[in-house]
Amino acid sequence: MIEMCVSVILLLLPAVSAVLPPTDVTVSCHNLKTVVRWNYSEQQGDSSFRVNVSGSEGHFQTVTQERHYDLSHFLLQSVYHLLGFHYVQVTAIQASHESATVTSQTFAFNEAKTTHIKCTLDFPPVVLTVDGLGARVTFQNPLQWYQELKNFHRLQAFLDFTVTVVGGGGEEFNTQCLSSETCSCDVQLLERRKEQCVELSGGMVVERIHRVPFTEMSVCAQDTTDDFSTLTLALLLSFLATVVAVLIFCICKVKAWTMTSPSPPYSLAPPCSNAGTPVMDLKKDVVSRAEHVDCTSRRPSDGGEYGRGGDLEELEAEDAAGHDSSEEEASASGYDRKQRLQVDMGGGDMVMAYDGR
What we know:
There is one protein chain. The protein is an alpha+beta fold. The protein folds into 4 domains: 103 residues, Immunoglobulins (Immunoglobulin-like, Sandwich), CATH 2.60.40.10; 96 residues, Sandwich (Immunoglobulin-like); 31 residues; 84 residues, no CATH class. It has 7 helices and 22 strands. The longest helix is centred in the last third of the chain and has 35 residues. About 15% of the residues have low confidence.
């Protein structure tokens, strides 16, 4: 009898050992996406795999020919499925033969559960606004960002998160976000920097007992206060320089219009016979008639070519006395006769000049 039992066992061993079990059964869970994966030898031919999910909340079983299986739909069937802890068992199947079962590590989206793998969610897109020594962190409420968590509202769920300032004293600011559409937290900075960074951590509290953890993240932002001040100062200086330049230009133009040029000295007058000849007036830049000058008052004084303006009466008397004795000069043309000219030397001094032509 014993020999018969041993023979039966020996006959069954080859069939059992012919189906190798899967290897490296692992579970990844992040952002409500949960997938179990495993490896299997290609030399085993066509094989199927039985996937069995067990744990504190619910049970699930299926068969697949893939080397992975998505468990997200099972966890999202119920809030309590998501908050419970689970593990996965995978068995290879070939025809009527099965391999040994391989079990994964335990996992859960709940910090209150003791498991090997802690599944987490990501924060919605976070915006950090820096203004001098103050900053604000804002993002959309995860209960609205994740459509799969809409049933959590009835469980009085809320987000409890902490903002930690990077650098300085590492100050922490804790706040809670309930049913508002946007979550925000104001923080104080100890020193001004060109770039400010904060770290964000927290979790979704459900029924005051469970806590769905969020992945810690950091966010940085530029302090735009200095850039704005510099730009404003540059614009003001540019505007001031423009105004000054316009004022200087206007002043110069007005001064040019109102300023009178000094009168140039009178030009040498032509002879009496040509007293009506046009000459150029330097002051007005127009052609004018030269002043009619009495030739009888233009003779030089005795013994010299020049006389002072104060001796005009004496010069006129001498000129009248010597006019008749100079018959040859009288008969000569105006240009052959010696000319005496009155010239303004400036400062109110008038002199008589002699033209010896």
